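Sample 3 of the quickstart, ligand magnesium ion:
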Amino acid sequence: MYCLIDINNFFVSCERLFRPDLARTPVLVLSSNDGCVIARSSEVKLLDIPMGTPFFKIKELVRTHKIACFSSNFSLYADLSRRFQQCIGSEFPMEIYSIDEVFLKLPTSMPRIEDFAHSLRQRLLQEVGMPTSLGFGPTKTLAKLALLCTKQNLTLRNVCGLTCPDETRKILQKTPASKVWGIGKALSSKLSTLGITSAYDLAITSPGWIRHHFSITLERTARELMGEESIPLEETPEPRKSLQVSRSFGKPVRDLRTLHSAFSTFCENASSKLRRADLFAQGCCLSTTYTLGPSSRIPFTQTLKFTTPLQDPRLIMDKISQHLTTLFLHLEKRSLTPLSPPSFYKGSLIFFPLSPPSAQPSLFDQKISVDCSKIGLFQAIDKTHQKFGSQCLRLASSLGTSWKPKSTLQSPGYTTSWKDLPTVHAIP
Ligand SMILES: [Mg+2]
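Result:
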């Protein structure tokens, strides 16, 4: 039996945890640079504000309905996600499916699964402060569908199991195929032209026919809807194949030094993630968007291949800064007047492929050489960051914050920054 545990309105629940005064107030969370809505409390959903709505379009609604708005605070969300996973424990095999969702594989013989689900929910609320919903069923796809039922039917009290075949059939008949896990818009419209409109239609279609006309993935989904385990639990996540660091700039960047500062910060962040995963990057894709005079935004992308796989932010930045400088000087020459230099709006680095130090290089590539003196240096840097925060030791080229995305509405780092620890007042 599979059980899926999901935190309700995760980012909003994180913000409310330290602001109990907002328990019944509409709350929303904005994307990087305070651009669009990326999380909504149930009150905001009732106001018909869709996900992805640009913030400037709803400023009037925010004022009228006194909606509490937050810039995203990913260090807080990541820390609470870690606590949520830890609290679930390791009693049963577990798959971390996303930042706020975990699958558990429970023994088929386990009695009273519903009681287990309610007590786990209670524990997560008490120990981590996160409200959750739980769905369970004989396959992962049915557990996901059971979870959807808890969101649509509030009388279920956040727990639903699809264990009775008759009950499951009725639910499948009522569920549109587009709501089934893994079926997107394009696929569901293609299915509907063939007369497969409900989850039940898909479940009773011949698996061989589905594999022939679609894919083995959809065949597995159909088998799972019939209660046949076809998508196994992934206890060990697949090793990372790429790593992206990107930001929209808070205001247009018009000088080379600030552009370097932004990309150097990206290199530092990426390097720290590579060290944690013990991976090296063999190359990267550098992208940015810019304008020249009154032109509309122009995208720029360049792929770089490193001669030796890299992890050291100084060496990575060395490669990148050459290309940034060439691009900037080239655009500066093309700009209409010296008074209107090129303006940059966002930057991104995608590192790929990634490989562990033990990876066998191809015939023409160099083997990763791990310099022990640098290992000591970066261990010391990581320890210092842990103790005094990630801003205490930086590359000189990263200094400068004028490019940083806007996050004027960000909540404090309640659980990740000593200076932001909440104060508790005790009345004697
Ligand atoms: Mg959720």
